[in-house]
Amino acid sequence: QEILEKYHDLFTLQWEGVIGNMCTPSQADWEQLLTNCSAFLFYGMERFMSHVLLDWLAAMNIPKCHLVILLDLARSQQSYQRITNSDSHKSCLRIALEKPTETAMLLSLTGVGSVIAIQWYTSLEENAERLETLFENLLSFGKTTGQTVHVLQK
User: Fold this and answer.
1) How far apart are CA 125 and CA 39, in angstroms?
2) How high is the mean pLDDT in each 10-residue block of the chain (154 residues)?
3) Any long-range contacts for 82-89 (C-beta under 8 Å, 24+ apart)?
4) How far is CA 97 from CA 8, 55, 79, 88, 102, in A?
5) Residue 13, exposed/middle/buried by CB under 10 A (0-12, 13-18, 19+)?
6) Which residues lie below 8 Å from residue 47, measured CB to CB, with a gap of 6+?
7) What is the domain partition of the chain in residue ranges?
8) How far apart are the C-alpha atoms of 104 and 102, rounded to whole Å?
9) What are the distances in angstroms from CA 140 to CA 9, 66, 143, 151?
10) Between the chain's N and C termini, which has fewer beta carbons within 10 Å?
11) 96 and 142 in contact (C-beta within 8 Å)?
């Protein structure tokens, strides 16, 4: 929340989404957010693809979304329990499609221009640092996504 407030003036007036854990977005919410955005940010627990339906995403056409930033793969005891229970009902192939590289490929096939995603499990605090770096470089400094990713890699 602090990071969003800090960079609020640099966002467009059309900034919308779901913040916090007050409600869980429905598949219709995910669809509306992804199809009506030019950039999409997911900052949450576990794998992004564990929150959306694979069949639904694979059938989408979202060419207006130029950038997807996935700051996922954060883990807590509660999120680990949830994902373990959820995964027990999925095939190994389905779980494999939720990995970062596969998720980026699926998003690319739906028309997304660029995907920035982490590839290893992390904490919410580390993702907050990444988000701060992303916003600072993309919004304050006006760097390209490639330049920003390069900064993140350092």
Assistant:
1) 22
2) 71 66 83 90 92 91 94 92 94 94 96 95 93 91 94 91
3) 82/45, 82/46, 83/46, 83/47, 83/50, 86/50, 87/50
4) 34, 11, 19, 15, 5
5) exposed
6) 72, 73, 83, 98, 99, 103
7) 1-125
8) 5
9) 10, 19, 8, 14
10) C
11) no
Name the residue type at position 28.
A
Q: Which amino acid is at 42?
A: F
Q: What is the model's pLDDT at position 102? A: 96
